[in-house]
Structure formats: structure tokens, C-alpha cells
Amino acid sequence: MDSHALITNDASVLGLLAIILGLVFYTANSSNPQWKRFYAVVPAVLLCYFLPSLLNTFGVISGKESNLYFVASRYLLPTCLVLLTISVDLKAIAGLGTKALVMFLTGTLGIIIGGPIALLLVSSVSPGLLGVEGPEAVWRGLTTVAGSWIGGGANQAAMKEIYGVGDSIFSAMITVDIIVANIWMAVLLVMASKAKQIDEKAGADTAAITRLQEKVEQFQAEHSRNPALHDLMVILAVGFGVTGFAHMFADTITPFMVENFPTLDRLSFHSKFFWMIVFTTVVGIALSFTRLRKLEGVGASKVGSAMLYILIASIGMKMDVTMIADAPIYFVIGMVWMIIHASLMLFVAKLIKAPLFYMAVGSQANVGGAASAPIVASAFHPSLAPVGVLLAVLGYTVGTFAAWFCGQILQAI
Question: CA 278 to CA 404: how far, in whole Å?
């Protein structure tokens, strides 16, 4: 381990990260007015990245030498993806109406094409952004932003591994990701406060929203219950069990691809991590059609989210906050990217006369994921928060594949 770090034992580092996460979530949910004002400005997820990065920056721990990220990305990440996708209810999503799905998919499309367009536009002013090879190439870093903005932290970590993103560019892109995404969420929350006027002016039919509220409330009443020990053990069995088979699958198919399809390396088909993520996502979706989907009623996604935040903290401990000062051009790319996404969303919403709720939640389900989509949804009505989760889970499902496709476009530029 790095002799310059104050704490070098990974067990101690994990304990420290767990304490940080616990304090962040405790204070974020505190009724103390001062904490409420603080978290109204500073997102909790930002602290989950930022506080571990301070420990790394000031030599308390060594993100470079620690094995925690490797363990979290190989064991917790695939398990997290299974538990988040297993709750996908495709029938319920279809019940949201065509316009809801159109707005969600429009948001996904906006991210896929927005990144490459933003890179091309900004590179016309700063040509040095293109033509760089190696782990620190800008296009590689942007794939992690695509992963986060289409799916979430798990998909972001997947892109980091699939495209071999260097730690320095990754640190800068995490900063861009969080700050730009939260600026857009603030805009959506302001719009939500004026939803009635905006919908009336656009001539949008909001009757479906009322029916949706009633359906969500009924689903919660029928399925939610306090988990027993056996529920939690089954959740862990499914998550880690699928992860184990995912590793076996990846260990088998990767050598086969390398030997029989040597030209497919460009498509990440020679990456064990890629196949592991594909396997867990596909199996998670398949299990959502079985009785195991009811595990969501006893907290499958909560267990998955807890693992996700451990992963987020382990990513954060690899960050160097001094990179922020070196990344102003990346913020420009991020803002242009978000403007493209937002413009496309607003244009399509006006074209099909979709309620603002569908536009806002469809966008945030992509950009913010399960951490913030419920916040935007509940800004319209508290009972609609699970709808944000539902669409965000759909984002997790398509996130890896859509972000990978975005990465292929970025790579071709």
C-alpha cells in the first residue's frame, strides 16, 4: 500500500467510507432547518463523491493503491444492476401512456446525440479536444457522463471499465456530471412549480396524471411491507447469485470472442466486464417477468441502491479535487450537451402536447436517475415519486446499452 497515506488498511478505509455515507444520509434526512437549507443547495450525492475525494487529495487514504473500487465494481455493481432492473414493470410503464415513454426515450436520444454534437461544436473552438488517444482521451471521459445521464452511477462505472477511462479525466467528468445535472434539475423544479400554467398554455391533457396518481397509490398499498430476514436473504441470493453466473459467463464468452472474432475488440466484445454487465442487465430484465419482481415490495431496489452508494464512495476516493480547476472546457461541453438534451425534450413535448410532468420526469429519469427522478416527480405530487423511480429503473435497464452506443459514436469522431 501507499506509505504516504495515513490509512492503508482497506477494512479501515471501507469503515471510514461507510461512516461518511451514514452521516450524509442522516443529515440529509434531518429535520434540522440548517441541514435542510444546506442540502437545498448541496446535493447529498455530491458529498458522497466529494468527501471521499478530499480524503484522497489530502493523503488520508490512497484511492490509487486501495482495492475497494475493484471489489465494488466487480461484485457490488453487477449485483446492484440486477436488483435495480428486477423491479421493472413493463406493463406499468406502458400504462403511463405513449407520451410518457416518448418523452423518456426522447431524453435518452438527446443524451446519445448530444454528447457527440457538443464535442464537435466545442472542438471547433478548441481543436486539442480531438485526436488524443489513451485512457485520458476526452471522448472516453464523456462516455462515463453518458452512462450517468442515461442510467446512473452503476452505468457510469460500467462505461469507465468498458472504455478504459483514466482516473484523471474521470475525476473531471464526475464534477461536470454532477454540477451540470443539478443545474438542470433546479430548472425542472422551478418549472414544476408552474406546471398548471405551462400545461394550460400548451393545451396538454393532464387527466392521465390523476389516474396515474390513483394507480400508484393502489400499487403501494398492495405490495409494500416491512422486509423480514428471509426476504433480505432472498434478495441477496438473487443479486449475488446472478453476479456469480455473470462472471462465469464472461470468463467463457470473452476468450471465445477473442479467438474467433479478433476484429470486434473495437465494440468492447473482448472485455470481460462488458459481458458481465450485459449478462446481469439482461437477466435482471428477464427476472422482472417472474414472481421475483415482487422482491421490490420488500426493498430490492433499496438494497441495490445501498450497494450503489458504496460504489459511488469508492469512485470518489479515486478523485483528485484539484482537477476541477483544470476542467473549464469540460464544463462547456457539459452545458452544451445539456442544452441539446433540454431543447429536444421541450420541442417534442410541445409537438405532442405532453404534460410537463412527463417531460420533467422523463428527462430526470435519464439525467438524474433513481436518486433525483423521485424528487422531481414528487414536486408535482407526493404520490407520484414512485413513477420517477419506475422510469429511472428503465433508465438503468437501457443505460448501459445506450451509453455504450454513444461511446461508439464519440470514438468515431
Answer: 11
| Residues 119/332, Cβ–Cβ less than 8 Å | no
In whole angstroms, what is the distance from residue 196 CA to residue 380 CA? 10
Alpha helices in 129-271 (DSSP H): 138-150, 153-162, 167-192, 195-202, 207-223, 229-260
Contacts of 240-244 with C-beta under 8 Å, sequence gap 24+, read 240/75, 240/79, 242/78, 242/79, 242/82, 242/279, 242/280, 242/283, 242/284, 242/287, 243/75, 243/78, 243/79, 243/82, 243/280
CB 347 within 8 A of CB 59: no
pTM for the whole structure = 0.70
Contact predicate 408/267, CB 8 Å: yes
- For 248-274, what is each residue's pLDDT tens digit? 999 999 999 999 998 876 666 787 888
CB 73 within 8 A of CB 308: no
| pLDDT digit string, tens, across residues 276-333 | 888 988 898 899 889 998 888 888 888 988 898 898 888 888 876 666 666 788 889 9
Instruction: Please state the φ and ψ torsions of residue 103, each to the nearest 5 degrees.
Output: -70, -40
Helices and strands counted in the chain (H then E): 19, 0
Alpha helix ranges (H) inside 353-384? 356-367, 373-380
Q: How many CB atoms lie within 10 A of CB 247?
A: 17
